[in-house]
Amino acid sequence: MDFAPPPKTLELVARYRAFVDEELLKLEPLVLAKPFGSCLPVLNQARTQAKVRGLWAPQIPQEHGGLGLSLVELAFVGEALGGCPLGHWAVNFQPPDAGNLELLHLFGSADQKERFLKPVVDGAARSCFAMTEPDRPGSNPTWLETTARKEGSQWVINGHKWFTSGADGAAYAIVMASTNDEGKPHERASMILVPMSTPGVSLVRNLPVMGEAGSDWASHSEVTFVDVKVPLSHLLGQEGHGFTLAQERLGPGRIHHCMRWLGICQRAFELMMKRAVDRPVAPFRALGQQQMVQRYVAESAIQIEAARWLVLKTAWVIDTQGQKAARDDIAMIKVLVARTLQDVLDRAIQVHGGLGLLDDLPLAWFFRHERAARIYDGPDEVHLASLAKRLLGARGLAR
Amino acid sequence: MDFAPPPKTLELVARYRAFVDEELLKLEPLVLAKPFGSCLPVLNQARTQAKVRGLWAPQIPQEHGGLGLSLVELAFVGEALGGCPLGHWAVNFQPPDAGNLELLHLFGSADQKERFLKPVVDGAARSCFAMTEPDRPGSNPTWLETTARKEGSQWVINGHKWFTSGADGAAYAIVMASTNDEGKPHERASMILVPMSTPGVSLVRNLPVMGEAGSDWASHSEVTFVDVKVPLSHLLGQEGHGFTLAQERLGPGRIHHCMRWLGICQRAFELMMKRAVDRPVAPFRALGQQQMVQRYVAESAIQIEAARWLVLKTAWVIDTQGQKAARDDIAMIKVLVARTLQDVLDRAIQVHGGLGLLDDLPLAWFFRHERAARIYDGPDEVHLASLAKRLLGARGLAR
Amino acid sequence: MDFAPPPKTLELVARYRAFVDEELLKLEPLVLAKPFGSCLPVLNQARTQAKVRGLWAPQIPQEHGGLGLSLVELAFVGEALGGCPLGHWAVNFQPPDAGNLELLHLFGSADQKERFLKPVVDGAARSCFAMTEPDRPGSNPTWLETTARKEGSQWVINGHKWFTSGADGAAYAIVMASTNDEGKPHERASMILVPMSTPGVSLVRNLPVMGEAGSDWASHSEVTFVDVKVPLSHLLGQEGHGFTLAQERLGPGRIHHCMRWLGICQRAFELMMKRAVDRPVAPFRALGQQQMVQRYVAESAIQIEAARWLVLKTAWVIDTQGQKAARDDIAMIKVLVARTLQDVLDRAIQVHGGLGLLDDLPLAWFFRHERAARIYDGPDEVHLASLAKRLLGARGLAR
Amino acid sequence: MDFAPPPKTLELVARYRAFVDEELLKLEPLVLAKPFGSCLPVLNQARTQAKVRGLWAPQIPQEHGGLGLSLVELAFVGEALGGCPLGHWAVNFQPPDAGNLELLHLFGSADQKERFLKPVVDGAARSCFAMTEPDRPGSNPTWLETTARKEGSQWVINGHKWFTSGADGAAYAIVMASTNDEGKPHERASMILVPMSTPGVSLVRNLPVMGEAGSDWASHSEVTFVDVKVPLSHLLGQEGHGFTLAQERLGPGRIHHCMRWLGICQRAFELMMKRAVDRPVAPFRALGQQQMVQRYVAESAIQIEAARWLVLKTAWVIDTQGQKAARDDIAMIKVLVARTLQDVLDRAIQVHGGLGLLDDLPLAWFFRHERAARIYDGPDEVHLASLAKRLLGARGLAR
Questions:
Q1: 228-287 of A, contacting D, C-beta below 8 A
Q2: Is C153 within a domain?
Q3: What percent of chain C has pLDDT over 70?
Q4: Are residues B154 and B205 in the same domain?
Q5: Does the distance separating the beta carbons of D2 and A298 come in below 8 Å?
Q6: CATH no. for residue A264?
Q7: Same domain, A269 and A377
Q8: Scanning B317, C21, C113, D121, which has its CA 20 to 30 A from the CA of D177?
């Protein structure tokens, strides 16, 4: 066993950290204060810098123009980037594009790769992923209202989606739709590539999430599909494989989130410690000399470090044995890191007092926007129940 | 002992509930979606209705034009109003005015009452309270940077305040300033009435709190005072009594908050239950049939009910024995109810899934805006430590 | 509303406190160190004193020789007694006799009262209650293995019970048995009075609970019934009413436990504070000056006070509106007080360090013996689920 | 990075597991039910088997007759053994001997090794470690009451110790005593080897810990030293180095405990799952089909797995970089694993209902005996505060 990251990884991470420190942190206040879309001209310079520095698309296979890092390497990179709300976006490692690219890489036809994968890898376009529906439980992806029916050479899609992240400004959506309501539950859905400019696609609104409707990439939209027609060739993967592809997509997606959340945790932790050191509660007595604050610091350190190693180990399992072998690990870290995130942010805010509530610091921004972490990609309760059922099932519990 | 509220109280509360249901809930979406200031013309109609219905200023003594309710009565009223973000404001029971009026009622001169108390009681003006400073710990009100020095017949005030709630649009501030830096810690500060139009008073900005700078009453401002001059007669109470007055103000202020928070808890709890009943997780299976959701419901019910009775008991102690006798009780409920609030909101959001994150419901609004509840009017840590020190001190622990 | 206990109650409680302080605390070390049975000769002197002081059987109606206190009064008395493991026993207010007497008082025939109620009220005998079975879930009292069949003029009872508290030395058991396996679930069981000397009744063992098998009243036994025959007149209440009677018995039983647990909480809390004041962690620095310890003290104070008022309110609801009206309240306090108990004991032990682990103090004794509090009379999970189902059911959730 | 244990380790662990399964579990009921000392004749056969199987003294360097395993290897072995209360003892890897042997190995003179180390390695004798004192805080080892003064060629020791584990039957104690009350705090104490048969050494009592005074190795004693005289050559290491040696001893001691606790966690977890699968709550419905139980299972799995990897990583840091580099890690796992232990045991007991409280299973035994885990070798609060102070100190916080 060897818990030391290889020097090459450390060197790479140091370059990502330098990028964050030198290029991104100065842009952060912009993003905390203004709509993302309005900042794009300035922010795009950071993307250019990421390319110049050779940090672009770390998760994309080299043959498609990325760095082709392993998941363990990405864990370190993801944490380094995650502390800044701009981090992943700046190097084209942001959701939902990262997951979409993974799908296109694994299951896309040559044409699909050329038309849909390439421009997103290049940063010329963005994509979105339309699965969640307002009227059906996100926790049950076998039960969709959105349908896609074959008519001649076309799919005709009708449905209502929301939490379609980054739909505002996206070139296309990967739409999850039922193509066979009578099939076995896990074989009903398919994924279809739908340009957002297709007639019948309407962006109803950017959802007002915790005080901010957001814009462009930094938004989550409500989208309707009314008699939307796309060629049959827009099917991604095989018909009826939507659920399987979604699982394929969500596994690494969840671990990418976990890595990013660790970056947020670490950032919040550093801010908490800085405040504890710098802030006097009385002349010559710093906040950090109070035991209650010390407890917050220590508890946070423990939670973060434990979460970090479980994420690294999970990444290693996926790298060496594949995603399926890591199924329980992924469920565990999804719950553990999201909880750690919320706990650490809460303590960091508390230690900052009123300042912690302000968008002057990224703490409040993360607190608001990452309350969602315990919900998206499967709420805590779903992961806990399914993990337990697998563990108990292996010991003989009837389903 | 008698735990039954008198019929008169129940009847009164029913009228407040009817007011909320019939007049306020329809206005709520406005407030969740738009700046408060921009909605004022419509919102003010609700204030008119409150007067028509005889619900105006429940906490104000009858001789000043209010209903003169006891704290126990206000507990029921405060919970009935608290579930709607507009509730307290609509009946002129909102912070910081409620606390300011209390101060003016108890310590104001006849002139001060005429000029500063009356228009706020009438709803013709609003006030604010400038105590917290960015560079000094809010938890230590004996250590202020803001000074007020006598020059001839005037106070000359210099200082930097923030979290001055409702300063935007306020007619005047009660400013807490050091009038004697050399005095005993608890005798250094005084309170001075400062019209916001006085030269040298600058509203720097409405603080961006959790994604929203807000406006008018629904805002928290950063304010500077540069050589601000007001007559000596603007001193509120006695010189050096600022700390004492602040305590006097904060005691009932804290219990008012607790009552209001209980209203938020109950609202969140009702929404959580409604969602659990209405939302299917699969055909013919509601969310509320899941034991994990049942646990959230039951745990919330227990926390709320326990908190409620401790608040009522505290109100009763203050009503019958005065605020000083309730010192420990106030510390207890400040911590307990703020925690209950956060726990219940968190569960309610979780049960709603994505919808819980949206400003379509008041859950996310409360979650964002009431994260502050564990910080303002004394952070949890300060109340816990001082409560413990009093309890241990009574058993002989050296200070 | 009036939160003040009447002077008569305070005076009564003061007498119970004096009894504990003057008569019981000196006997406590005996009970912590030796088998209960072996201490009986000494301990019985305390029972005599209780009678002399007019404190005997506070819960028993005056017509049967007790004090006939209301539940609110018993709440105060129960807390006063609960802090000492001997408290309830010394005044004949201990489980399981208290519950059995309640059943006999409400449902016993004149003969049953004479033969079974009277000697226990007098303290001349003890009883036990045989419901829980090793092979069936205690949480489901409609599903029993023990049967009682009529043969001529007799019941013939066969079954296997455990956690029959106080069976060792008891004169008789109230046995819960299925008298009709085919009936509706809630009408299958009946209660039958069985003298422990009846042939076929075997006390298999006193269960080794947390390091102690105990003896006499302070024990929990495994008991088997093999063709045990008692006259048909030993039926308590009506045939098929076992479940109803059990509910009748458990409601007040649960609140009695809650009152007692509050006494344990308060005792542990006082010990924690005493240790915090008395124990130096360094020269001239007491444990209680550490903020982490202060937090434990304050958190305990809050939990206890909140639990206490919810218990009092529940007692008041039962006194004024009956047990049925308090169904939700009882579920709430069962969970809340048992949790408070465990939390406060845990903190009190932690503050004592190694000493907290020793049977030199009652803390470890309570910690061991009251881990059961979250299990007996319905585990937390059952109360939480059924409370939630009632609350959600009232809002339309299908069962 | 490589998270896979080498095949050699896996093979070794499998042999330890087989030993536990085949030799120890059958003896476990003995130990749960009877005084340890009374079982020794039977238990010693297991020790013989351990030698036969080549599993003896895994932590002892090969030159002294052990297996000389690395800490990472010991982590796996420690977990495999820890699930059975007899595990560590059966292979001579039990506290306090393991720590004492470590000290003797590192700091003992040749004579000391021959006389004190060898017989314990062989299993012919046991030792104990007398540091904790009843009247001084165990958390402050620089402040001892016990003194050792030089008189001629002898140390004269006076003092009062408790929680001297395994003193009953031990051949000697390593006594921590102040040899210079005027020295710098960390240079006051020394360690001295004291045969228990020396005049003046009195074993006052085996402490009654959570219902059990225990005996022989499985006991914790109160010991007094009155004018106890031993030769100057009995000094272990250098004079005034007691504190340093204690740290040296406690670092690996803490990690050994953590490994063992993980074994307890895993055992409790397996028992919890078995019960969830096997126990019906109603006909055809198992406990494990209840979501609340599923949550307990999943939460336990997450906590254990996170704790496990942090322990392994800590072991690896010590193996590769030494104990000092792992200071923060050790503090973290001490707190994290002890908490995990208590949480998992609590849930396992809850899932078992009444059975969980009985000494029929090891759950209650561990629950009682390992409540101490959050206290011994530094209570949680001390580790949390010192960890935070180091972290904050590194960022500039004044001590």
A1: 273-274, 276-277, 286
A2: yes
A3: 100
A4: yes
A5: no
A6: 1.20.140.10
A7: yes
A8: D121
Binary contact (D320, A4; C-beta < 8 A): yes
pLDDT tens, residue by residue, D186-223: 999 999 999 999 999 999 999 999 999 999 999 999 99
The pLDDT, as a whole number, for residue B251 is: 77
What's residue B150's pLDDT? 97
B164 and B93 fall within a common domain: no
User: What tens digit of pLDDT does each residue of C342-381 get?
Assistant: 999 999 999 999 999 999 999 999 999 999 999 999 999 9
Nearest-neighbour CA in chain A from B10: distance (Å)? 35
pLDDT per residue as tens digits for the range C231-275? 999 999 999 999 999 988 887 889 999 999 999 999 999 999 999
Q: Quick check: D77 and D12 in contact, CB under 8 A?
A: yes
Selection from A70, A262, A328, A11 nearest residue D1 by Cα: A70
What is the pTM assigned to this prediction? 0.97
D41 cis-preceded (ω within 30 degrees of 0): no
Asked if D169 and D217 touch (Cβ cutoff 8 Å), the reply is yes
pLDDT digits (tens, 9 = 90+) for B209-260: 999 999 999 999 999 999 999 999 999 999 999 999 998 888 788 999 999 9
Residue B191 pLDDT > 80, yes or no? yes
Residue A141 pLDDT grade (very low, low, confident, very high; cuts 50, 70, 90): confident
| pLDDT tens digits for range B131-184 | 999 999 887 778 999 999 999 999 999 999 999 999 999 999 999 999 998 889
Give the pLDDT of residue C212: 92
Chains interfacing with A (3 or more CB pairs < 8 Å): B, C, D
Q: Do residues C172 and C232 share a domain?
A: yes
Structural domains in chain D (count): 3
CB atoms within 10 A of CB C241: 19
Do the chains contact at C374 and D207, CB–CB below 8 Å?
no
Determine the structural domain holding residue C380 and report its residue range: 244-394
- Beta partners for residue C192, in sequence order: C175, C235
What subunits make at least 3 CB pairs under 8 angstroms with B?
A, C, D
* pLDDT tens digit sequence for B369-393: 999 999 999 999 999 999 999 999 9
Contact C292 A295 (CB under 8 A): yes
Residue of C nearest to D163 (CA): C354
